Amino acid sequence: MPHRPAILVKGYPRLSETFIAQELLALERMGLAFEIVSLRHPTDKAVHDLHRQIQAPVRYLPEYLYQEPWRVLRGLLRQLSNPRFWRVLAVWLRDLRHDPTANRGRRLGQALVLASELPAGIDWLHVHYLHTPCSVALYTAILRDLPFSVSAHAKDVWTIPEREKRAKIRACRWLVTCSRMNARHLQALVPSADIELVYHGLDVERFPAPARGPGPDGSGLDRPVLILCVARAVEKKGLDVLLAALARLPEDLHWRFEHIGSGPLKDVLIQQARRLGIEDRVTFRGAATQDEVLTALRRADLFCLAARIAADGDRDGLPNVVMEAMSQELPVVASAVAGIPEAVVPESTGLLVPPEDPDALAAAIAQLIRDPERRLAMGREGRRRILEWFSFAAGMARLARRFGLATEQREAA
User: Fold this and answer.
1) 158 & 259 share domain
2) Which of 34, 292, 337, 351 fits a 20 to 30 Å CA distance from 329?
C-alpha cells in the first residue's frame, strides 16, 4: 500500500522552487495522496501554473508563534499528555544548547501544532530541506511516532553544523539529494544511512525543443547577443562577478544582459551596473513565472551563471535553471563549482571557469559571442545530454518506489 505522507516545505507556493512543485504534481498524478504543510505563508505575488494544478490540501503552521498564541497553546496542552512529549523536549533541549535562538523555539512550537492537528490517516512525513523544516519534521515524527524522510538540496546541506546533519540523517528512514556532491558529503557523515542521488530532472514535455538558428555574432549594433541569467539575487549566485565580467567584454562586441529573479541584493546589483557603466545594456526583470522564464530562455543566445561558495558555506546543488537552459539549446558559461560540472561538459555543452574570476568569465563569454555556430552545436548537445542523463521520469520512478507506489501506477502516469 502506498504511504499517505504529509510533505513539509519552508514556504508554499514559491516561484523559486519549481523543482518542488513539479515533483508534487507528478507524485499526485501518480496516485499519491498527501497533504502539504508549509512553515511560512507565500510572499510571491504570482504563482506558477504548476501550483494551480496541484490539488493537495495545504496546511499553514504559525509562521511566528505570537501570531497564533491560542493555536500554539492548544498544541502544547494536547501534547503534554503524550508520553513522547518528554523525549521531544530532551531532543529539543539538546538542540537548544547548540542553537540558543528564538528560531529554535519556533520550530518546537510549530511541531506541537502540527502533531496536534495532523489528520489520523497520515502515516509518513517527508520534508524538503535538512535545516529548519527538518527540525519541525523530526520533532513531529517523535510526537506522532511516525517515520520521516528528507529531500536535501543546497543551502540546507552546507550551512548547518555537521553534528546536526548527522543527528537528522540517523533519525530519518531515508534521504534523497539532488547532486552527486551532496550525496558524497552526506554519506560520508553517516556511512550506514540510506542516501540516494535523485536529480530533480527536467520534465521535457514542459520544455520542448526550440526552433533555434545560429544567432548573432556580436558584430552588429542592431543584433546584439542576448545573455541571460535566471537566479536569486543572493551571494552564492555570483551576480556581482557576472556584472564585472560583462564590463570587461571587448568594446567591439554588442550584447545585452537580462537577469530574472528577486532577492535581497537586487538593488546593490543595479547600483553596481551603474558604476560599471553598463546599465544601458542590463535589464533586471525581477521574479517571473516559469512560462515567462521559458520565453526568456528561447529569446536568449547564451546562459551564464557565476555561482560561488558563499561566506557562510552556502552553495548551489545542481541548479534546475541550468538544466532548463540546456533543454532550450542554450550553451552555458558557468563557474566550475558545486553540482554544475555534473551537467555542463566543458567544450561540449558550454564552458566552465573558476569561481570568483571575472576575467576568465569574460573571456569565455566573448568566445561564444563571436562564434554562433559553436553556440548552436553546444546547445544541441546540451539538450541531448539533458534528455539522456537528467530524466525527470527516472527520478520520479525512484521517489514513487520510496513512497510505496505500485509499478503499474507509475507506468500509468
Assistant:
1) no
2) 337
Looking at the structure, do residues 48 and 181 belong to the same domain, yes or no? Answer: yes
Q: How far is CA 62 from CA 72, 84, 93, 180, 339, in A?
A: 8, 22, 21, 35, 34
Same domain? 125 vs 145: yes
CB atoms within 10 A of CB 413: 17
DSSP conformation letters of 185-200: HHHHHSTTS-EEE---
Q: Are 142 and 101 in contact (CB under 8 A)?
A: no
Give φ, ψ of 309 to 5 degrees: -90, 120
HSE at residue 273, side-chain half, CA atoms within 13 A, is 21
Contact 36, 56 (CB under 8 A): yes
**Alpha-carbon gap, residue 44 to 411, rounded angstroms:** 35
Query: Given this model, what pLDDT does residue 16 score?
Result: 83
Sheet holding 175-177, edge to edge: 58-60, 35-40, 5-11, 124-128, 148-152, 175-177, 195-197
Read off the DSSP letter of residue 59. E
* pLDDT at residue 205, as a whole number: 83
Query: Order of strands, edge to edge, in the sheet holding 332-335?
Result: 282-286, 255-260, 225-230, 302-305, 332-335, 350-353
Question: Which residue positions in the chain have pLDDT lower than 70?
Answer: 407-413
Of the candidates 137, 135, 196, the one whose C-alpha atom is nearest the C-alpha of residue 161 is 135
Clarify whether residues 144 and 102 are in a common domain. Answer: yes
Look at strands 5-11 and 124-128 and give their pairing: parallel
For residue 100, the model assigns a pLDDT of 94
Residue with cell 489528520: 119
Which range marks the domain in which residue 371 is found? 205-389
Q: What angle do CA 208, 213, 215 make, to 5 degrees?
A: 120
| The pLDDT of residue 413 | 41
